[in-house]
Amino acid sequence: MQSISPEGGRPASSDPASEGPQPPEQRSTEPPVQTLGRASVAWRLAALLLGTVLVVRGSVIGNDVEWPFGPMSQFAFRVGQNDAIRATFLQARTADGEVKLVPITVSDLGLARAEIEGQQPSIIRNPSMLADLAASYARLHPGQPKLTQLWLNERVTVLRNGRAAGERVDTLVGWPANDTAPELPR
Amino acid sequence: MTATSQAAPSLRPARTARIRAWFFEPAPQSRIALLRVAIYLFVIDDLFFVVNDVFAHADSSAVLYRPIRLREWLNLPVPQHDYVHVMRWVIIIGCLLCASGRLPRRLGVLVGFVVAAGFTDWVSIGMSYSKIDHDHFALIVAVWVLPTIGVARFGNRTRSEAAGWALLCIQVACVAVYFLSAISKFRYGGLNWPTGSTFAWAITRRGTSLGDLLLNPPWILTASQFLIITLELATPLLLVLRRWPRYLFVIGLWAFHLSTYLTLTIHFLPLVICLLAFLPLESVLAWIRQRSARPSAARSRPGRFNRSSVRPEPSSGSPQRSG
Asked: Of A1, A72, B61, B165, which one has the fewest beta carbons inside 10 Å?
């Protein structure tokens, strides 16, 4: 596959004395070069071309599920200067009646917040998916009171000309009771 | 290779040679050996600190599993605890072997591809719960192309075209991540993406206290958005720049990643590591060796770093004042 030719075969190397292996003492001369055979050159060029086409295609017309050749879409959306900024959070009532905020992290629920946000529409259509989060929580917090009621909420920050101009909390969905979450104790 | 070399370079031999020299610019084995250490040790780190949610995903129920298309095509299983546990050990051992630079050629290629397949599987699990990141693209490319180089020993100055191609692939992958990020911003956000409040959105949702300082007045973040998109659009220059302009560009990108880490705790480390493919790593090794091998000779070297010609000899008296 790979042929070793100490003479280098680099026409552009501009070293007239580069015929044959060089003595190691000659520090000023270029070290030997391992060149590639024609087949090795061909498949490498083809692979590089194919990969480049695929990745460019991904960002121009592709879709996330085509990872690793999906679009480079992190932070690619635009938020207007008067839009609302939404951040999802989980609120729960425990078996002993405490209402609290449950951080949506891998260590607390086995998932990151962006992953819950990515599935938010399905969770709203199908609130029992929250039961799954309660089960994950119970598994990751043995010995702590179980979560008996969950609410998926959004903290909404309203922008005016790019500045925060107010904040409110919306309940998106609750399980098993699909009601509005009580205000969290500050 | 049985073809005679008479027919092929008939038309424009100088031009084909130039094209070949760009795609296969020979790179020293030593650089590859060092890059492998960095990449493979980082992959191990990645398993524990970057895409570290695979166990949690495998353990939580499969309801939230949304496999990316690659996993469906290859019929990869819904991740289970034992499966990912074994895979992690395979990747760790493979990475240590590849980083050692001591594997013989065929075994090295085999182990390298096992690591590449395993790591791709691992990261693709992390991307199969509806949040898909692009920070791993260059690293995934790196683990697939590094095995194709074959043996690369530390300190060996022999240069190889295979190494040059592999480095080019990693470099192109890095540039693709930046440049195509800008293209995606125009695609999804519109041409007026830079005038929006996307950074304010990010900082409001997950900013650090340092990031919060940048929220007001809003023009600070608008200016940063223009700066970032300009930087991203300029990255193809990395492929044509050489020496210090190229190194300084890489340092600039590292500074950008440091700033997003300090303001948003988003680090893009898998890409940060791959930027090493633009740097002459072997000269660091050569420099260290020179330093440690002949500490006394370093003083008498000729040239502008000859310190003995600048500094007065100790015998000239100033340190003896304390008596």
From this structure: A1
